[in-house]
């Protein structure tokens, strides 16, 4: 898994449009801000986007296949709870860890065979 930087993002009605330097078609994701993007080993991609509102933030996690279709997605949200994405760490080719709510560390598992996402909240040890 490696970070993606070869795109431009533009807010549109209904989401965030990503354009790429190569010939790939434009990609529409939820949210208004790209927090992180990753290229996966099987040519799929993983995107973390947000509404850019830290006082009551939603983090959108989108798994996109090589044809540009969202095949699985998660929304991480708590009413009236600030959320700021930080400490994003690639643990392996199918796993990342991050903080979103300041006291909670999360682990995202990507099943590359089933094209699914699973989120775990880790203990504070």
Verbal overview:
It is a single chain. This protein is mostly beta strands and 125 residues long. It contains no helices and twelve strands. Strands 1-5-6-7-8 form a five-stranded antiparallel β-sheet, with no helix packed on it. β11 and β12 (116-122) form a beta hairpin. The radius of gyration is 14 Å and the shape is globular. It starts with a strand and ends with a strand. The mean pLDDT is 89.
Rg, alpha carbons? 14 Å
Oligomeric status: single chain
Describe the sheet with the most strands.
Answer: 5 strands, antiparallel
> Which percent bin holds the helix content?
under 10%
The gross shape turns out to be: globular
Can you count the beta strands? Answer: 12
Work out the strand percent. Answer: over 45%
Order of strands across the main sheet: 1-5-6-7-8
Number of distinct helices: 0
Tell me the distance between the termini: 26 Å
Structural class, by secondary structure, is mainly beta
> What is the overall pLDDT average?
89
Summarize the helix and strand pattern as letters: EEEEEEEEEEEE
The parts where pLDDT drops under 50 for at least 5 residues are: none
Short description:
With about 120 residues, the protein is an all-beta fold. The protein has strands at about 1-5, 5-10, 15-20, 25-30, 35-40, 45-50, 60-65, 70-75, 85-90, 95-100, 105-110, 115-120.
Chart the SSEs and their pairings.
Elements: E1 2-3, E2 7-12, E3 15-20, E4 27-29, E5 33-39, E6 45-50, E7 58-64, E8 70-77, E9 86-92, E10 95-99, E11 105-111, E12 116-122
Antiparallel strand pairs: 1-5, 2-3, 3-4, 5-6, 6-7, 7-8, 9-10, 10-11, 11-12
């Amino acid at each position: 898994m490696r970070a993606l930087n070869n795109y431009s993002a533009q807010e549109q009605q209904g989401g965030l449009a990503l354009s790429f330097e190569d010939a790939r078609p434009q990609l529409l994701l939820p949210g208004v801000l790209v927090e992180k993007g990753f290229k996966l080993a099987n040519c799929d991609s993983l995107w973390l986007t947000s509404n850019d509102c830290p006082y009551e933030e939603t983090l959108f996690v989108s798994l996109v296949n090589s044809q540009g279709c969202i095949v699985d997605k998660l929304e991480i949200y708590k009413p009236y709870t600030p959320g700021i994405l930080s400490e994003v760490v690639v643990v392996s080719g199918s796993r990342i860890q991050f903080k979103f709510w300041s006291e909670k560390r999360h682990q995202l598992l990507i099943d590359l065979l089933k094209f699914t996402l699973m989120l775990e909240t880790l203990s504070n040890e």
